[in-house]
Amino acid sequence: MIDITSPSNPLIKEIKSLYKKKERWAKNLYLAEGIKIVEECIYNDCQIVNIIYSDELLNIKGGQALFNKIKSFKGLIHVPDKLYKEISDTETPQGILAVIGFEVNSIKDLNMKGEPFLLLLDEVQDPGNMGTIIRTADAFGIDGIIVTEGCVDIYNPKVVRSTMGSIFRTPIFHELDGIGIIEKLKEDGIKIYSTSLEGSQYIQDTNFKEACLLIIGNESKGVSESLHFLADKLIKIPMIGKAESLNAAVASSIIMYEAIRQRIQ
């Protein structure tokens, strides 16, 4: 274990730099903060580079038990509570965060055997929505999420926290060219569905048992016209109330539920 007390320590500066997307992707590192998320990180055998903790951890429920698991970890760093608060970006720090390595995955790495159900996210920009989508995809056993250019960084600390550990289990693929990957999947026989208020078909009338990809669009603009054009079908959720639309996370959750409902019958 290393003891660090100075905010000017190079390692502390590097950890703080990971709040910037540019630095995260340059170093292929990101932060996961909190007891629950660090426990999930350990359980899922993530590439943990460092774990930073302060004595505050030992005063929180579950903190002592977690410390007993990590106390022999070679990359463990102890800092004073005051310094930890300078590092943390949460309002009520629990005194522990992990620095985790990641690899950039391509949809080409996914085994397309069987009838996969995939999501493609088109400029989903809210961290809470992104985290909820990843968490729901994990709950329903979705085969993969394709994140395209313009989306919020999935390694944004707010996204990571809101996934509650699901980011460690859900297959996530980064593809800059949404149009190109959709065209390739169509060639592979994947049905493409896009959400739209002008959709011609309700989700319960859509066949989600076959290999398919669902496009989820931006919170305010919806799915891009260029991606709508490539869809085999525009689909919508039946609504009888007065709300005009649902946010990206809620809409995708409802459709994922319908897909799994069909598949387990």
CATH superfamily of the largest domain: SPOUT methyltransferase, trefoil knot domain
Cα radius of gyration in angstroms:
20 Å
Structural class by helix and strand composition: alpha/beta
Q: Output mean pLDDT.
A: 93
Largest sheet: 7 strands, parallel
Distance between the termini: 52 Å
Please tell me the CATH architecture of the largest domain by its name: 3-Layer(aba) Sandwich
Q: Please provide the ordered H/E string of secondary-structure elements.
A: EHHEHEHEHEEHEHEHEEEHEH
What level of helicity do the residues show? 25-40%
Q: What general outline do the C-alpha atoms trace?
A: elongated
Number of strands: 12
Q: Any low-confidence stretches, pLDDT <50, length ≥5?
A: none
Topology:
Blueprint: E1 2-3, H1 10-17, H2 21-27, E2 29-33, H3 35-43, E3 47-53, H4 63-70, E4 76-78, H5 81-87, E5 96-101, E6 117-121, H6 127-139, E7 144-148, H7 157-162, E8 172-175, H8 178-187, E9 191-195, E10 201-202, E11 212-216, H9 225-228, E12 233-236, H10 248-264
Parallel strand pairs: 1-4, 3-4, 6-7, 6-11, 7-8, 9-11, 9-12, 10-12
Antiparallel strand pairs: 2-5, 3-5
Structure description:
- This protein is 34% helix and 20% strand.
- By secondary structure, it is of the alpha/beta class.
- It has 2 domains: 2-101, Ribosomal protein L30/S12 (60s Ribosomal Protein L30, Chain: A, 2-Layer Sandwich); 107-264, Alpha/beta knot, CATH 3.40.1280.10.
- Helix 7 links the parallel strand 7 and strand 8.
- Helix 6 packs parallel to helix 10 (248-264).
- The protein is elongated, with a radius of gyration of 20 Å.
- It starts with a strand and ends with a helix.
